[in-house]
Amino acid sequence: NSRRSPDADTTVLAVANQKGGVAKTTSVASVGAALAEQGQKVLLVDLDPQACLTFSLGIDPEDLELSVHHVLTKGTEAGEVILETDDGVDLMPATIELARAEADLLTRTGREQVLRAVVDDMAAKGLRYDWILLDCPPSLGVLTVAALTAAEGVLIPLQCETLSHRGVGQLLDTVHDVRRFTNRDLEVWGVLPTLYDGRTNHARTVLETISETYDLDVIEPPIPKTIKFAEAPAAGRSILATSRSSKGAQAYREVAGNLLARSGR
Ligand code: ADP
Ligand code: MG
């Protein structure tokens, strides 16, 4: 795969869906922690100005002098911004300043490439990860397009409800544009069913309809809806640490195992 030469050892995945509340951030934190448990070196990148990922890993954005915004718009080196977390993953944190980065980038040439350039630069400087997971904001704006441009694959967390349909086509249109213009090799790794209520047939039917309509793989297993997830962010740790053996934690471990198998790592 010729384009990826500097970082061929790294699997970069964007976790994207322009709908909020579908468990993008929860999935990034949990899959990241699960991959780290399995001995992988993992970097999570918070690309949402709301900084929920940063918060949920126990870091208060207000305490930060440097964040992803500086890396994307001020030329600050990634290594100066990346933090270690208690979950065994590294984090490139966000603050509300990232909202401004989005506006700043709009007038910049090459804005779609800005994150890819950061990833390539990290590799060139020997800052190496097995996985880089990109937590996208709930929009299809500059930051999401930059994430899709830097990524090898995209995961689409999806809450299996009747109307969850509607955004998927739009997201896939964006993926097609990215493939055409900025990242020919981008692959959709699949939809990740989240907030899944296995007691109803409804969820299963919606999932099947979506995967057939859009010809998308489903990343198994579905992540069950459980109250444990609401508790984890306040503890500043992912559910893998706060409820080690819960069904949700186990499901994310299995998902991570399937992603590992797919990456061939
Ligand atoms: P997004 O990043 O897509 O906006 P979040 O990961 O922030 O979504 O999740 C939205 C809310 O849903 C959060 O309050 C989170 O704690 C909760 N949540 C995520 N996954 C689950 C789950 N499997 N069961 C119950 N609540 C969940
Ligand atoms: Mg989020």
TrEMBL record:
UniProt-listed PANTHER family: COBYRINIC ACID AC-DIAMIDE SYNTHASE, P-LOOP CONTAINING NUCLEOSIDE TRIPHOSPHATE HYDROLASE
Official protein name in the record: Chromosome partitioning protein
Pfam families: AAA_31
Source taxon at top rank: Bacteria
Family classification: Belongs to the ParA family.
Role according to the record: May play a role in septum formation.
Record-linked InterPro entries: AAA_dom, DNA_Partitioning_ATPase, P-loop_NTPase
Source organism per UniProt: Nocardioides thalensis
Ranges of residues in domain AAA: 11-188
